[in-house]
Amino acid sequence: MADIGTDHGFLPLYLWENSISPKVIMTDINEGPLQIVRGNCERLHPYYTFDIRQGDGLEPIEKDEVYTIVIAGMGGMLISDILAKDMEKSKSFMKFVFQPRSKRGYLRHFLSTNGFRIKREKLVREGGYICSIITAVRDDDYTVGEELLAHDCDSVAWEVPHRINRKNSLYEEYLVGIYNKEADIYRKMRKGGTDEEEIEKQMDRIKYMKRVLDDERYFYDDCFTD
Fold first, then answer.
1. What single string gives the DSSP state of each residue in 150-212?
2. Could you tell me what percentage of the chain is helix, strand and coil, using 3-state DSSP and rounding each to the nearest 5?
3. Which of 6, 59, 108, 182 suits 25 as a labelling partner, its CA being 20 to 30 A distant?
4. What distance, in Å, lies between the first and last C-alpha atoms of the chain?
5. Going edge to edge, which strands form the sheet with 68-72?
6. Structure pTM?
């Protein structure tokens, strides 16, 4: 596996230490984090030489070089840009694990409309933040359902996880968080004198999330076709 933007290197180190991945590559665009990575590697495993590379996005990784690409802790738009920069290389890898810190809906839209299939999502808590872990695979034959495809990348519909165990204890809290965020934006728009047309659009986003929260029969997996 390759950890893009590895930061401290603890994730690939864990995968290697536990024999989950026999080969790990750690990359970062800046030399500073890589110095920290080298220090961690030397401190924890002084007799093993790890593959540490500097570069932007997927540039340090060769086509077909690894099975899994991990990109965690970046915004969903940046992750999408990294993949889009060289789609031929991006699609040479088999599996992807993403943990977007923002613009999660944008990333879901990009993946679902550019030859990737979201296999599953998992919600985990990190302090006061609920993280969404997205596992995806390349799949040019996969087509997203028309209901979801009708929404553009900025639609609140893409903010809702679609391949997820809805019994996850964090799922409702996650959805409520989206609803509260949209409601807060609406209040600020009203207070700030935003154009009425834009306020109506924001109200539509709130209504959409209210329907998601209220209607237990609304299954988002139905938006996808396998």
1. TS-TTSGGGGS-SSB-TT-TTHHHHHHHHHHHHHHHHHHHHHHT--HHHHHHHHHHHHHHHHH
2. 45, 20, 35
3. 108
4. 27
5. 51-54, 25-28, 2-4, 68-72, 95-99, 129-138, 116-126
6. 0.89
pLDDT computed for residue 123 by the predictor:
94
Tens digits of residue pLDDT in 74-87:
999 999 999 999 99
CB 164 within 8 A of CB 122: yes
Question: Which pLDDT value is given to residue 20?
Answer: 96
Nearest CA-CA partner of 76 in 45, 49, 99, 48: 99
Q: What's the Cα-to-Cα distance from 97 to each of 4, 21, 100, 196, rounded to whole Å?
A: 11, 14, 10, 40
Three-class SS state of 17: helix
Under 8 Å between Cβ of 40 and 13: yes
Q: Which amino acid is at 81?
A: D
